[in-house]
Amino acid sequence: xxxxxxxxxxxxxxxxxxxxxxxxxxxxxxxxxxxxxxxxxxxxxxxxxxxxxxxxxxxxxxxxxxxxxxxxxxxxxxxxxxxxxxxxxxxxxxxxxxxxxxxxxxxxxxxxxxxxxxxxxxxxxxxxxxxxxxxxxxxxxxxxxxxxxxxxxxxxxxxxxxxxxxxxxxxxxxxxxxxxxxxxxxxxxxxxxxxxxxxxxxxxxxxxxxxxxxxxxxxxxxxxxxxxxxxxxxxxxxxxxxxxxxxxxxxxxxxxxxxxxxxxxxxxxxxxxxxx
Length: 276
What we know:
Elements: E1 27-30, E2 41-46, H1 48-65, H2 67-73, E3 86-93, E4 96-103, E5 110-116, E6 133-140, H3 145-151, E7 158-159, H4 165-184, E8 189-191, H5 194-197, H6 204-207, E9 208-209, E10 212-213, E11 216-217, E12 228-236, E13 239-247, E14 257-264, E15 273-275
Antiparallel strand pairs: 1-2, 3-4, 3-7, 5-6, 8-14, 9-14, 10-11, 12-13, 12-15, 13-14
Helix pairs in contact: 1-2, 1-4
């Protein structure tokens, strides 16, 4: 289910670098990626230089990680003529593997996401360079992946996925940061994600992770929305952090990603939800 998109006021500065956009001005920013069906738009929110940076890592995620998934589920694309009709997979037969391309109607498409440990900052750790995970979440989005795999001579629906953890983390960070600005205002918190989003530093595991309850990874039930975001406040010493729980593919039962958005200044209340 997709709800009507709220109308947000123009920001007037780039939400990543705080510039006024110069001669080229400021463009609107899709808070959830358009290529995943996002319809939340923040006007006058990105300068041309930052838009070019964010476009690059979003393209890695949308084309290389989720290309077949998007085609299978009919997600939008701005370049319909360029969307391929064939996608890669690994054909497994008698323990031998062969990379092949398969038309989307016969492709055994599965969605694969990682279940991370909670953000290092919220676990009292910092300086983590590699994501910690001990589970992989897989969804047979067509309900017939094994049958389709057999149809192309493969014993398993082993899809050839390109997982760029850094690009994926930056996309999740961009979503959380943009939604926080839209919901609470750009001056209501001191951001901690902008250098990560712009690729200036890589501290993603410190501020992005999963959700754990009583030591166990928590994956909620499916809901009737494509995306969800729920904000909360975390007290760490004398600092109050704004935290976002981001869930892509929520209607498929996908994992939640917890993101430390920034240090609270004013105007932020606990538990402000967003769903689309």
